[in-house]
Amino acid sequence: MMMELAPSNIRLMASLKNSFMIFLYRHRDSNPGYLDENQASWTGLDDSGTLDTIDQIMSLFNIMDSQKTIIFLHGWGMSSKIFRPFYHYFKNDFIVYFLDLPGFGDTPIERPMVLNDYAEFVYKFIQDNNIVDPIIVGHSFGGAVATKLAIIHPEILSKLILVDASAIRQPHHIIKLAKKLADLLKPLMPFGLRKWILKLLNLDKTDYAQIESDELRTTFKKVIHEDLSQYLPSIKSPTLVIWGENDTATPLSEGRLIANLIPNAKLSVIKHTGHFLFLEKPLEFVNEIKKFIVSPTA
User: Are the CB atoms for 15 and 66 separated by under 8 Å?
Assistant: First the structure.
């Protein structure tokens, strides 16, 4: 997993702020020479003028205090790397985390898991790092995990952003066929030959067909059947649903249904994009997120 501005650094900044305020209080009458009370500024410490006034220093601390935290959850078969280019767009306004979910990237999977396990994994990460009221952004499978988190731990997040989220499960026939064929071929022939046959039938690109880990394969079988539609009306977090107009993996009809079921959810459809809309139109993706976060009605 990848993270930026760890909470330990934030706690350090808070401690420095407190120490700075105590110093000002203790020296309010002594004026030891490097504090000009009339101008309320440091003198002679930094010829460049960088952070040379109390106002500037306090402004820095206030920014650290007010920064929101945003956590990105990737889709099935991906890792945190898919979102890392977006650090550039969010770093000035947010404390940014990119998580590798178990079974992907640098996070191993030790046993078969269900959506609840993944949601608890994210919940534990938030608690362990003392993150307060994060904004959760989940794409595809990561969107399902984010949705589950909002259902079982509504108090832990401030806002929910679902991107082509697979929170409603309506498996396509092609996925069912790939699953059945992969299971049938597994005991009969080696992996290389199985992969060649699936490729020949144009079934090798499905999520299930590409899984090599037994733990992850069992996990896929479990999560593919977890339909959260009946629980969506219970979500209390302000929610933005972002969808690619031409998504074939999770059709727009599912996005509309999710937005209709979650109370007061906002739906944003990005024209001429598919399942990875944030790679196709990154600026629109970023703008939609930022508009939603600063909106007083969100």
Answer: no
The boundaries of the domain holding residue 163 are 68-169+226-294
Query: pTM (2 decimals)?
Result: 0.70
In contact, 107 and 100? CB cutoff 8 Å = yes
CA 84/CA 280 separation, integer angstroms: 15
50 and 149 housed in the same domain: no
Instruction: List, for residues 64-103, the tens digit of each pLDDT value.
Output: 445 799 999 999 988 999 999 999 999 999 999 999 999 9
Q: Tell me which H or E stretch contains 60.
A: helix 54-66
Does residue 152 sit in the same domain as residue 234?
A: yes
**Same domain flag for 60 and 145:** no
| Count of domains for the chain | 3
Write b or e for each residue in 200-220: b if 16 or more Cβ atoms lie within 10 A of its Cβ, otherwise e. Answer: eeebbebbbbbbeeebbbebb
Concatenated DSSP letters for 273-298?
--TTHHHHSHHHHHHHHHHHHH-TT-
